[in-house]
């Protein structure tokens, strides 16, 4: 009788790991502590609940590394991508998701799978035997976190992740704001108008920065340190780095024309992206914040068009725990000191929904193959998944290891191609062509062929 695979955590990584292993014929038990044990960030007991942005970022599989990761997950019959594609929202070339039906679909598909069962309750110790994947993400419980720290002989690394506010659309003044994707990007009118834009002149921007810097912020507890991931910096931290930082970051005005004042170039632009299929909620893009709630409403209502904004959710901040994976995990994502335990998702030191789900996909397949007596090799380094797992399990410098999004900087160079910005398009296409061939080969090697995306 086939041994059971136990997965701790029902987020993106745990859900994808369960789907992959179950489809290979291995019995799976998902141990999810919610809703018995709540977290400050989650609202439901659904699996794969999205707690921060609703974006999977670029869906371009020829010129973007995360789009390539989407392609590889689709090629492997990934559940997370199936649900994302089913509940896709217009986002100007990005893949944005209607978060609640997305999570419900993942939950329903897993609960209906004959090889999957879900047990509610907290796991607070490292199991000594059996096959396990720990995919507890950035909100690993205190008990399990202590057990991991005791086993690894050092405190787990930690940084703080900030959450962006969400605004009710009907409270936005559309006589000041307008709909447009940057550079009108997108193949349809819906895609080309996927973002809501709020313009600022120079005086308004300067006043906004002053208020942002002066606003009271969430205080850290004694003994905590704030080591932010650069891809998710709070806006006030960016502002502290220089008054122009936001204007050249999430508030950059390039590629946008204000139809209310077409001859006036905005000094800065705040963008909002649709957060649900109904179009009733919009999240403020790149506006993660640790401002206290009262200050948030005052400061954010300084944005033209948001003077009377009503907030469905204000921003927040939470601790994000991850392993020093280059020293602790092997190429199969196993804990070196306890090889019956694999880790997957953000706790391994990847950043982002897609990267987390991708590491779950690999961990699920590798664990299932091992249980079935036909171990899989590590994925080829030339694939997006291979480049990412190689980075976190050995390619990164352990002393300075920080969470990483997938990017072409992790890929081995393609010989004979032009460097620099002018050669970038050909170079990226070569990376993605090579990666797709490598990934198809890995899937075929494991006799785990899945329908290939077009």
UniProtKB/TrEMBL annotation:
Main location (coarse class): cytoplasm
- EC number in record: 2.1.1.74
- Gene3D superfamilies, alphabetically? FAD/NAD(P)-binding domain (3.50.50.60)
Q: Which cofactor does it need?
A: FAD
In the UniProt record, does the keyword Mitochondrion occur?
no
Keyword NAD applies: yes
Keyword list, A-Z: Cytoplasm, FAD, Flavoprotein, Methyltransferase, NAD, NADP, Transferase, tRNA processing
Binding site residues for FAD: 9-14
Q: Which GO terms describe its biological process?
A: tRNA methylation; tRNA wobble uridine modification
Residues spanning the membrane: none
Domain MnmG N-terminal per the UniProt entry, residue ranges: 5-373
Q: Name one GO molecular function term.
A: tRNA (uracil(54)-C5)-methyltransferase activity, 5,10-methylenetetrahydrofolate-dependent
Q: Name one GO cellular component term.
A: cytosol
**Catalytic activity entry:** uridine(54) in tRNA + (6R)-5,10-methylene-5,6,7,8-tetrahydrofolate + NADPH + H(+) = 5-methyluridine(54) in tRNA + (6S)-5,6,7,8-tetrahydrofolate + NADP(+); uridine(54) in tRNA + (6R)-5,10-methylene-5,6,7,8-tetrahydrofolate + NADH + H(+) = 5-methyluridine(54) in tRNA + (6S)-5,6,7,8-tetrahydrofolate + NAD(+)
Q: Where found?
A: Cytoplasm
What function is annotated for this protein? Catalyzes the folate-dependent formation of 5-methyl-uridine at position 54 (M-5-U54) in all tRNAs. NAD-binding protein involved in the addition of a carboxymethylaminomethyl (cmnm) group at the wobble position (U34) of certain tRNAs, forming tRNA-cmnm(5)s(2)U34.
Q: What family is reported?
A: Belongs to the MnmG family. TrmFO subfamily.
State the name under which the record lists this protein. Answer: Methylenetetrahydrofolate--tRNA-(uracil-5-)-methyltransferase TrmFO
From what organism does this protein derive? Roseovarius spongiae
């Amino acid at each position: 009788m086939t041994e059971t695979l136990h997965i701790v955590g029902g987020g993106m990584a745990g859900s994808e790991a369960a789907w992959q292993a179950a489809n290979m014929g291995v019995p799976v038990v998902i141990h999810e502590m919610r809703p018995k044990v709540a977290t400050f960030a989650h609202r439901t007991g659904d699996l794969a609940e999205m707690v921060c942005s609703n974006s999977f970022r670029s869906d371009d599989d020829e010129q973007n590394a995360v789009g390539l990761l989407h392609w590889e997950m689709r090629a492997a019959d990934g559940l997370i991508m199936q649900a994302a594609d089913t509940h896709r929202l217009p986002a100007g070339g990005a893949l944005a998701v209607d978060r609640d039906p997305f999570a419900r679909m993942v939950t329903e598909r897993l609960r209906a799978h004959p090889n999957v069962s879900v047990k509610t309750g907290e796991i607070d110790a490292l199991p000594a035997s059996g096959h396990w994947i720990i995919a507890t993400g950035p909100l690993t419980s205190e008990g399990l976190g202590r057990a991991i720290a005791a086993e690894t002989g050092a405190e787990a690394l930690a940084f703080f992740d900030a959450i962006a506010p969400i605004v009710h659309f009907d409270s936005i003044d559309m006589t000041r704001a307008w709909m447009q994707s940057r550079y009108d990007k997108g193949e349809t009118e819906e895609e080309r108008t996927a973002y809501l834009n709020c313009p600022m002149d120079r005086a308004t921007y300067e006043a906004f920065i002053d208020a942002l810097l002066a606003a009271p912020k969430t205080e850290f507890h004694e003994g905590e340190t704030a080591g932010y991931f650069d891809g998710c910096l709070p806006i006030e931290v960016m502002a502290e780095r220089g008054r122009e930082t936001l204007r050249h970051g999430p508030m950059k005005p390039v590629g946008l024309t204000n139809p209310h004042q077409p001859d006036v170039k905005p000094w800065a632009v705040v963008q909002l992206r649709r957060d649900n299929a109904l179009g009733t909620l919009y999240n403020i893009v790149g506006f993660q914040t640790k401002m206290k709630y009262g200050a948030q409403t005052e400061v954010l209502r300084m944005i033209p068009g948001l003077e009377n904004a009503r907030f469905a959710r204000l921003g927040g901040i939470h601790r994000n725990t991850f392993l020093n994976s280059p020293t602790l995990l092997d190429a199969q994502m196993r804990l070196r000191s306890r090889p019956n335990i694999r880790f997957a998702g953000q706790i391994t030191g990847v950043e982002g929904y897609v990267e987390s789900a991708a590491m779950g996909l690999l961990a699920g397949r590798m664990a299932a193959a091992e249980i079935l007596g036909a171990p899989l090799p590590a994925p080829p380094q030339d694939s997006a998944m291979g480049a990412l797992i190689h980075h976190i399990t050995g390619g990164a410098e352990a002393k300075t290891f920080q969470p990483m999004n997938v990017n072409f900087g992790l890929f081995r160079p393609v010989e004979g191609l032009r460097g620099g910005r002018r050669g970038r398009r050909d170079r990226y296409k070569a990376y993605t062509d090579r990666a797709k061939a490598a990934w198809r080969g890995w899937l075929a090697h494991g006799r785990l062929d899945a329908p290939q995306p077009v």
